[in-house]
C-alpha cells in the first residue's frame, strides 16, 4: 500500500490532483492520498473494461453469415466478473474506513479550541479555554456586513473545531483543510480536529450548505501564523484590541485578503449591477 500511495502522490501531482486540492494538514494529506489511489484504481478498471470491449468488437466482429460458436456459460469468466468487483469494493472500503476513522479522531486536550458559531449570514469565532459547552470564551471574533471575519490559528498545534448554529444548518469549509462539517442549530455541537496545520498563510473559508439569500457571500478567512504570533494575537484580543488591531500588532494584514464583503445595498437602478458584481465576488 505504501508503494501505491507514493506512486499515487506522484501521479496526482502530475495531473493536478485529479481535481482535488492539496491539503495543509496531516488529515488532509491522508484524504488526498486516498482520493488519488481511488482515482488511479478507477482508471485502471476503466481502461481494462474499455480494452475488453474494443477487443471483443475487433476479435468477434462479423466475418460472414456463419454463426459463431454458441457458448451457454463460461465458468472462469463468470467467476472473474463476480469476484473481481467484490475484491475491488472490499479493498476500497477497507482503506476508506481506515482513513475516515483516523481523520475523525479527537483528543482530550487539544492545544487550541475554537467554537465556530454560524448564523445568517456570517460567522463568530470564539477562542475557548477548554472543550465542550461548559468551557469559557476568552476572546471572540465576529463578522459583520462590511468586515469579513478572520480566524487566526497557529501552525504546528492541534486544533479542535466545535461547530454550532444560531438559526439554520450551515457548513464550515476551508477547501485546503479538505474537511467540512455542518453546523446545526440547537444544542448540537459538531466536532472535528486537525493534529496540526503545516502551511502558514491566508486561506478562504466558505459556508458549504445552502442556507438562504446570501449563502454564497457567507465567507470568512483562515489566517495561519506562527505559534508566537498566535499567542501575541490572542493576548491582544484579550486585552481589548479589535481583531484588526490585533492582526496589525503581529505584522499581519488587518482585513481579509482572500475574499471581500458583498455590497448588499439594493435600489431599483443598481439592483442588476449589484447582482452581477456579487456573483463574481
From TrEMBL:
Q: Which reaction does it catalyse?
A: 4 Fe(II)-[cytochrome c] + O2 + 8 H(+)(in) = 4 Fe(III)-[cytochrome c] + 2 H2O + 4 H(+)(out)
Q: Name one GO biological process term.
A: ATP synthesis coupled electron transport
| Keyword Electron transport attributed | yes
Indicate how the chain sits in the lipid bilayer: Multi-pass membrane protein
SUPFAM superfamilies on file: Cupredoxins (SSF49503), Cytochrome c oxidase subunit II-like, transmembrane region (SSF81464)
Q: Give the EC number.
A: 7.1.1.9
The subcellular localization recorded is: Membrane
According to the entry, every stretch annotated as the Cytochrome oxidase subunit II copper A binding domain falls at: 109-236
Q: What class of enzyme is it?
A: translocase
Which GO cellular component terms, listed alphabetically, does the Swiss-Prot or TrEMBL entry include? Answer: membrane
Going by the UniProt record, its keywords in alphabetical order are: Copper, Electron transport, Membrane, Metal-binding, Respiratory chain, Translocase, Transmembrane, Transmembrane helix, Transport
Coiled-coil stretches noted in the UniProt entry, renumbered to this chain: none
Transmembrane residues, as ranges? 34-58, 79-98
Functionally, this protein is described as follows: Subunits I and II form the functional core of the enzyme complex. Electrons originating in cytochrome c are transferred via heme a and Cu(A) to the binuclear center formed by heme a3 and Cu(B).
What family does the entry list?
Answer: Belongs to the cytochrome c oxidase subunit 2 family.
What name does this protein carry?
cytochrome-c oxidase
Amino acid at each position: 500500500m505504501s508503494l501505491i500511495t507514493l506512486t499515487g502522490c506522484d501521479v496526482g501531482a502530475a495531473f493536478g490532483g485529479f481535481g482535488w486540492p492539496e491539503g495543509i494538514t496531516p488529515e488532509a494529506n491522508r484524504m488526498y492520498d486516498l482520493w488519488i489511489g481511488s482515482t488511479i484504481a478507477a482508471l485502471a478498471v476503466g481502461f481494462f473494461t474499455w480494452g475488453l470491449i474494443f477487443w471483443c468488437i475487433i476479435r468477434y466482429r462479423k466475418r460472414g453469415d456463419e454463426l459463431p460458436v454458441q457458448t451457454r456459460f463460461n465458468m472462469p469468466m463468470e467467476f472473474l466478473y463476480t469476484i473481481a468487483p467484490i475484491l475491488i469494493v472490499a479493498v476500497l472500503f477497507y482503506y476508506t474506513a481506515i482513513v475516515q476513522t483516523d481523520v475523525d479522531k479527537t483528543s482530550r486536550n487539544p492545544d487550541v479550541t475554537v467554537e465556530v458559531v454560524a448564523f445568517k449570514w456570517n460567522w463568530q469565532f470564539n477562542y475557548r479555554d477548554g472543550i465542550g459547552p461548559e468551557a469559557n470564551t476568552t476572546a471572540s471574533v465576529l463578522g459583520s456586513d462590511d468586515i469579513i471575519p478572520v480566524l487566526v490559528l497557529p501552525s504546528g498545534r492541534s486544533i479542535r473545531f466545535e461547530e454550532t448554529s444560531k438559526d439554520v444548518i450551515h457548513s464550515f469549509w476551508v477547501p485546503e483543510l479538505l474537511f467540512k462539517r455542518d453546523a446545526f442549530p440547537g444544542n448540537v455541537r459538531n466536532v472535528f480536529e486537525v493534529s496540526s496545520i503545516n502551511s502558514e498563510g491566508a486561506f478562504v473559508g466558505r459556508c458549504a450548505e445552502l442556507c438562504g439569500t446570501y449563502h454564497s457571500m457567507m465567507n470568512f478567512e483562515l489566517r495561519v501564523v506562527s505559534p508566537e504570533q498566535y499567542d501575541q494575537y490572542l493576548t491582544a484580543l484579550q486585552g481589548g484590541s479589535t481583531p484588526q488591531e490585533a492582526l496589525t500588532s503581529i505584522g499581519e494584514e488587518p482585513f481579509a485578503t482572500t475574499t471581500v464583503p458583498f455590497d448588499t445595498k439594493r435600489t431599483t437602478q443598481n439592483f442588476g449591477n449589484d447582482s452581477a458584481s456579487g456573483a463574481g465576488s
